């Protein structure tokens, strides 16, 4: 359609292209953040994903070492990931501290190709039971 050499055709082609670009832009704005590079996305079914549970154990072990405490890992109850230079994992971890069950929020940076794993944050969320 754009190949014909008439004077009206370039105008139609540019209008068609403008409409297509506008539609593409609208589609990009409507897509949710999890589909964009750098967006944080939920990880489903975390309680059955060994690699996510292992990351939760790692976070608790690192925190115990850094703070010289003895929190016990129970399970990861929620997880999200974000693509950066590697992956950032945001975990909600259920723990035991004596007779109390507590939730912690952990942020872990992983670069699998370098065998790099770093706990960046570990903070209490709430107490579940006394």
Automatic annotation (TrEMBL):
<dbReference type="InterPro" id="IPR027214">
    <property type="entry name" value="Cystatin"/>
</dbReference>
<dbReference type="Pfam" id="PF16845">
    <property type="entry name" value="SQAPI"/>
</dbReference>
<dbReference type="InterPro" id="IPR018073">
    <property type="entry name" value="Prot_inh_cystat_CS"/>
</dbReference>
<keyword id="KW-0789">Thiol protease inhibitor</keyword>
<protein>
    <recommendedName>
        <fullName>Cysteine proteinase inhibitor</fullName>
    </recommendedName>
</protein>
<comment type="similarity">
    <text>Belongs to the cystatin family. Phytocystatin subfamily.</text>
</comment>
<dbReference type="GO" id="GO:0004869">
    <property type="term" value="F:cysteine-type endopeptidase inhibitor activity"/>
</dbReference>
<feature type="domain" description="Cystatin">
    <location>
        <begin position="35"/>
        <end position="125"/>
    </location>
</feature>
<dbReference type="InterPro" id="IPR000010">
    <property type="entry name" value="Cystatin_dom"/>
</dbReference>
<keyword id="KW-0732">Signal</keyword>
<dbReference type="InterPro" id="IPR046350">
    <property type="entry name" value="Cystatin_sf"/>
</dbReference>
<keyword id="KW-0646">Protease inhibitor</keyword>
<feature type="signal peptide">
    <location>
        <begin position="1"/>
        <end position="33"/>
    </location>
</feature>
């Amino acid at each position: 359609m754009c190949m014909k050499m008439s004077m009206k055709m370039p105008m139609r082609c540019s209008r068609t292209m403008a409409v297509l670009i506008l539609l593409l832009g609208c589609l990009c704005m409507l897509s949710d953040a999890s589909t964009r590079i750098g967006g944080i996305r939920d990880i489903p079914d975390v309680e059955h994903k060994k690699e996510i549970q292992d990351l939760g154990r790692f976070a608790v072990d690192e925190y115990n070492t850094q703070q010289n405490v003895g929190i016990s890992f129970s399970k990861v109850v929620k997880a999200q990931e974000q693509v950066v230079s590697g992956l950032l994992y945001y975990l909600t971890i259920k723990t035991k501290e004596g007779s109390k069950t507590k939730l912690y929020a952990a942020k872990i940076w992983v670069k699998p190709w370098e065998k790099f794993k770093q706990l960046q944050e570990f903070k209490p969320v709430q107490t579940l039971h006394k």
